[in-house]
Amino acid sequence: MSHTAVWAQHYAEIQYPDEETGNVRDSRMDGYWTTYYAGNLKDIQTVIETGSEEGLVNAEGVGRIWKAFLFHHVTDLWGDVPYSQALMGGENTTPVYDAQADIYADLLAELEAGAALLNNSAEGFGDGDLIYGNDFTKWRKFANSLRMRLAMRMSEVNPSAAQSAFVAAYNAGGFTSNDDNAMIEWPGAPYENPFFENWQGRDDHAMSRTLINILKDLNDPRLFFYAEPAASDGEYRGHENGRDDLPEGVSFADISRISDFWRANGAASPTAVMTYSEVLLLEAEAAARGWSGGDPEALYLEGIEANMNQYDPWGHGPTDAQIAEYLDNPDIAYTGLEDIQLQQWIALFMNGNEAWSNARRTGVPDRPVGADLVWLGKIPTRYSYPPDEQS
Q: E-strand spans in 68-119?
């Protein structure tokens, strides 16, 4: 809420706007780094090792897939990071920093290897699989879909390798409907949606002016499902990113907040890990680049529709009539690659890591540099290495 989605210009900080000005707090960097390496990644490494030792193919397979998903976050956030020598405990307390290109190549291999291990007839996780309920066909689709995401991330630095990796992942089979979406459904207290938990005592974030204005310009019905109207007058109005204060004459009541679906009423609202709409728009981009024989326009429109429908099971999102009207809107008529990339950015709302990473890769949309973003003079493109790690 205070970093990636702010820098993607989905949200804005309206109180304690350090990150809006590029002032990244050292304590937070230490916390994130430690949580990934000493927490989540170390835990999943234990799952992989136990699965391998005890012949639990699904534990090892899902473990390798989830480890790749986590390291994909880590390298997207920091760049070059400890990878090949990480998670060895006391055996190596000074692991080398691997180049991001090498990490990406290995993540693609790990996702393929993890998926190959999965077996619906083998032992699962009991009621501990909170994403797919031991449906390892869907886990395999998730792995292949994530391979498509990683391959496209390489498009501007190694197009030939990106194309090869994407085509291989596509042929292996990714998501084919919203039923395949990787969604965390929060079971209830004490495991509730973190946005809801934050809302119980905090009001530090609002909607970004960039996102609100783009949705308004496109007459996009997702405006009414992503945001709450301003309390003062019922209008939808975002806050300018890159400011350390509110504009003169503007109060907190004049700015839209994040939708109550995730916040005030969001205790059980799901968290999207990866969705069918993202995959369709990745496939549209691949077709537009000539990597596949698909129809980029058809995939583009299908991707928008899938995104608008992805929260239907929870009673949230545009109506069928609103969707049909939007798909016929001349303002979103397909003209090329930037249309796909803009719709991907819109569809990735609530997935700040991916929205920020995609915006860095594509330059879409144009994100204005705020007047008070003086520490760097530009929107941050990497997390800073934490002081504890530097020392």
A: 81-82, 97-98
